[in-house]
Fold this protein.
Amino acid sequence: MDSHARNLLAEGLAELAISADTAALDRLCALAELVREWNDRFNLTAITDPVAMVRKHLLDSATVHPYLQGPDVIDVGTGAGFPGLPLAILNPSMKFTLVDSIRKKIGFVTHAAGVLGLSNVDAVCSRAENLKHPGAATVVSRALSSVDAFVRNAGHLAALRGRLLAMKGRDPGAECKSLPKPWRVVSTVRLTVPGLADERHLVVIERAKP
């Protein structure tokens, strides 16, 4: 990644009030380069320009950072590893399970985690509804499906006091009107990605208290 894109990344993380040392920045830049290298063979993403990748993949993923609950996070429908890999780099003390049903994408995630030395990442090839897990503190998805479908398919992956985080574009209010019980929307937050004018929202979902 060129110095201009790297500077935009560092400035964007600072704007989001996220602390990232040189090692973390190096890993985030290396991740972007790995995506570009593999993309020629496996078509992982349509976004390959370094600046666009910084804004639409790395910084976009980082916007959910303040809403994570530890110690463990499941990223459902991770694709090329977003938001899970950037979040794992920024949160080395948390355990991340990255899930996708497309084997070539999980192959990339496995490779990237190994190259980047991310011992806190596991990659699993599975559909969310078929995955068995004892329950994570946070389950996140980025533009995967409608909010209600996300809750139906991935709600069982959250611990009793865990939360679901649905990263969306436009305000998904209509998608939140038919959530299965006992789930409820705690808040819908407007997110701002540094350098990006596109609309972003985060829906925070928890089980209703008895």
In short: The first helix runs from residue 3 to 15. The CA atoms of residues 71 and 94 lie 5 Å apart. The chain is about 35% helix and 25% strand.
